[in-house]
Write a structure and sequence with these properties.
There is one protein chain. With 107 residues, this protein is mainly α. It has 2 domains: 63 residues; 31 residues. It has 3 helices and no strands. Helix 1 runs antiparallel to helix 2. The longest helix has 34 residues. It is flat. It starts with 11 loop residues before the first helix and ends with a helix. 0% of the residues are buried.
Length: 107
């Protein structure tokens, strides 16, 4: 009857895995804060030509969305295939719709 099945105990492997995951999340959080500060500096100082500001801001935003999905929403882990498929499918449909509207407007 001396089984050690206490659910509060965490094995050393799981502790190390949790520590590494927390480090990755903190690093990605710091990078997102840095990207946000860079975006504010670019807009506030006017250090770039206005033609390049929007594409640079969109790239920084896309990188931040990637960090959000893969590190904070855990989309990189197993078992998230269907939600990822739905999100990527929705993104693809939105891009196709925007491209179609752009072609129709341009035409």
């Amino acid at each position: 009857m001396a089984d050690s099945t206490n659910s509060n105990e965490v094995n050393p492997f799981q502790k190390q895995k949790n520590k590494e995951e927390m480090q990755k999340q903190l690093i990605s959080f710091a990078l997102m804060i840095a990207f946000t500060i860079i975006a504010f500096i670019i807009v506030a100082t006017g250090m770039m030509d206005s033609m390049f500001v929007i594409p640079v801001l969109l790239i920084l935003a896309a990188v931040q969305v990637g960090f959000q999905l893969y590190y904070f929403m855990h989309m990189k882990e197993k078992g998230h295939g269907m939600p990822a498929l739905m999100m990527y499918g929705g993104l693809w449909a939105a891009l196709l719709a925007l491209a179609a509207l752009g072609v129709i407007t341009w035409w």
